[in-house]
């Protein structure tokens, strides 16, 4: 074997022991061995090309599999120093619903609704009866709490009620916003009279919000009193205060409506929740 050096590359000569012919070889650009015939236009030897084809087949197989795992029978030694190139690429992190946009978000919402409908059709839900505690009664959902509050008010106008329910916390609704939503529900659904636009007490802590409103169950429209015997006599006097703007008579009943929203960590799984407590006191 003889060696010759050109201006650009090194060439070696090998003599065939059978025919006596002299063959020229240059170095492979991958393994650096002199296995590439000088007349071959390719820069890598046959052995390196076969390794490259094998790596490409394994990479395509790994990408086609959903688990992204390689066959355990394939040994890293087969691929040599470039075995890392045959490993499947890491799967991209899944996006949350808020990160999706356009048609992707619509498709995700449609899939969620279809899944929930299927669960509702195949599952049987049993209504849990209210559970009483020393401080308040726990209800399964908000509608049951509102129904109980309406029933308590229908029995006695000066009712005393204390109930709560828990929900899964939503990232974009904090305790203050949830308390405002419950305030609107008590006004529109329960139709309980209280001064909803001006809380008399607002307590904000690290894990909750409490709003207290004054009850207005004694507020009524004054009757028009007339006297047939002495129309020009002195006007009757009312013991209650009169609102000059609305003409309503205000009688202070001393009652209050309290709405508390706080953290709820009672779920056996690590699921953050919000507990809503409604108290009506006279």
Structural descriptors:
Protein Transport Mog1p, Chain A, 4 helices, single chain, alpha+beta, 4-stranded antiparallel sheet, 13 strands, 25% helix, 7-stranded mixed sheet, 282 residues, 2 domains
Structure description:
The protein has 282 residues and is an alpha+beta fold. The chain folds into 2 domains: 2-86, no CATH class; 131-222 and 242-281, Protein Transport Mog1p, Chain A, CATH 3.40.1000. The protein has 4 helices and 13 strands. It has a 7-stranded mixed β-sheet with strand order 5-6-7-13-12-9-8, with helices on one face. Helix 3 (142-155) packs across helix 4 (175-190). The longest helix is centred in the middle third of the chain and has 21 residues, at 102-122. The chain starts with a strand and ends with a strand.
Number of strands: 13
Query: Which CATH C-level class of the largest domain is it?
Result: Alpha Beta
How much of the residues is beta strand, in percent?
15-25%
Please identify the structural class as seen in this structure.
alpha+beta
- List the strand order in the largest sheet: 5-6-7-13-12-9-8
| CATH architectural group of the largest domain | 3-Layer(aba) Sandwich
Average of the residue pLDDT scores: 75
Amino-to-carboxy terminus distance = 110 Å
Radius of gyration computed on alpha carbons? 41 Å
Question: Mind summarizing the main beta sheet?
Answer: 7 strands, mixed
Overall helicity: 10-25%
Number of helices: 4
Biased composition (Basic and acidic residues): 89-105
Region (Disordered): 52-105, 222-251
Biased composition (Polar residues): 222-232
